């Protein structure tokens, strides 16, 4: 049920507004205040979905109520009620954050339409806020070990900047998670986050994938196509497994980083891009440089900030938290009741050699949830968690 507050000093108009809203929709619960001071007090102490507020009132006018009310409840929509001489003020209140205004005497259709639109927008904003929390939680790093705490602190400092980041670590440690979290906490979080798995794309196609191509550039180029750098404009591009990129592609990436420009395969035209680059690799790039497989100048362009993600064997104290997290998440995904793990089962899993890191642990937890008893115990671990 939507709760609406009507703040209006003229009793006749106030009664009309309350009557119209109450009779129009059973889902509207309408309360009233006869002046701005009383109205603001109700806003501070109540939970409302919408406020209709007159502009000209004694003691405290509607502009003051709007300004003070939005400080208390920033998400609360206001519809201002204006007399004939208050139209300029009513328009100014929209610049201050009011949703809309209606004139006296209120037109029935306009009033109801404006109220519905304001309530719909509030609901949409609330849904978006919940969705953003879910997205943020999806990429949350689980762990309280000193190693993970240090990475979290680093991300908090680095994310708001545009500094390039190179993430290193073994397969399955969560390098992609770190990249996502950097993007989510950056000023670019509303713009695209574009992932490129450099190891999964054939060397002859990587340049087209990254920079796009024009029609006729090669046999299968039947039309112009934008590359990942263009797609990620104003956002973040994540170059995963960059150590597997060909030297010719590395040269083009270096140019893109130096000049903030790319050119599609088969074209001489430069395209300006504004992209933050985050890269990751499971290789030792210093060794790759020594072997002539990776450009040293590109390494120094990418490694402004270095983040090394530890292996799970180096952060065993986080394993109980990770088991609980995966158990809840998997149960939610599968629509089943969550299972708990006995202390002995957790202790046994802490002692495992996790060569596959976080990815392997998640697979083992899922297997134990499917094959284990109501509570996963030590025997379940011995039976089903073996290599």
Tell me what you see in this structure.
It comes from Robiginitalea myxolifaciens. This is DNA-binding transcriptional response regulator, NtrC family, contains REC, AAA-type ATPase, and a Fis-type DNA-binding domains. Residues 3-119 form the Response regulatory domain. It is a single chain. The protein is built from 16 helices and 16 strands. It folds into three domains: 2-133, Rossmann fold; 139-310, 3-Layer(aba) Sandwich (Rossmann fold); 313-384, Helicase, Ruva Protein, domain 3 (Orthogonal Bundle). It has helices at 11-24, 36-45, 62-72, 87-95, 108-138, 146-158, 175-184, 203-211, 228-231, 247-259, 285-290, 296-302, 319-334, 343-350, 357-371, 378-384; strands spanning 2-7, 28-33, 50-54, 78-82, 100-103, 165-168, 193-197, 212-213, 225-226, 236-240, 261-262, 271-272, 276-281, 305-308, 340-341, 375-376. The strands form five sheets. The chain has a five-stranded parallel beta sheet with strand order 2-1-3-4-5, sandwiched between helices. A five-stranded parallel beta sheet has the order 7-10-13-6-14. A two-stranded antiparallel sheet has the order 8-9. It starts with a strand and ends with a helix. By secondary structure, the protein is α/β, with parallel strands linked by helices. The chain is 47% helix and 16% strand.
